[in-house]
Sequence to fold (323 residues):
Amino acid sequence: MVFGQADPRVKQALERWRLVAPTLGLDPDAYRHKLIWQKDEPSRSHIVLRMKGTPVLIIKQVTLASSGKSLTETVDALRDAHLRLRDHDKAHAPEVLFSSESGDFIVMTEATGRTFEDHLNKGRAHGPMLKRAGAWLSAFHSSGSLEVRTYQPRFMVEHVERVLQKIRDVPAHVAEPELFIACCEEIPRLAKAAEGQQTLSATKHGDFNIRNILLGPNGETGLDFKPHSSAPVGFDIVRFLMDYAELFQPLPNGNLLSQDTLDAFFDGYTVLGRDDPAVRFLPYVQLLNDWRAIPVDPDNRSWRQSIRLENITALARSACGTT
Fold:
């Protein structure tokens, strides 16, 4: 695949744009395009174009979606998030102006700002960025109904037990299997400490990571929502904080998440606090899930995966009591 102007996916998207633009009252020739993101994998293929004009727009075209992924449900989740946050001063979600019937081609308003990851790569202080991300997620979770629940981690425990058995049977399926197994064996104890305590459930973002939030001059904008589902709010919190911890956080002593990380994030996130049982337990499960996703063969890892694995194993040795 040749990316950029020669990428056939770009040509196809622009042909579709020429048909869609007039239905939005726009002149397609008044816009210039730029390929700002692409993914081309055996199971996933999509592009994102920035359309410079008045107004500035974003086009996303999906050529191949992950197995079982409903594109229309994903579009519905984005529309729902925009409506829920439409009147919020600082927390935003893009507005979908057009979607194909299948959801494989959408036109939406541009969200201004840089991703959380971009800000950190440019040397911005971590604390204020974590607070802003926490504030956005707090606004999103509280924009709908919140349900009090009793936290039951048994499903995650059963998931880890199945994974543990697979790695014991075939250790070569994960990098540093002995350390991985040691961390898996800690899960039942950690779950017991969280079981039966009160938590809150809300509509999930579903993939709240350090690339899926933009921090700009007019506030924060969430991106790439997963199809609508409800779960303890700790799922979104932990997904974001562990993504940060595995790539940027200074190594804490004896924990996965440092006090500085938690202080900053929960200065912005106010729906509940750091003592929530899911927030305390789920980082260990997320670490294991992220660990398994990294190729065992170093030659098959991206530079990002190599950095993540190095930090994951350092966190595991610190938090799981291994040396």
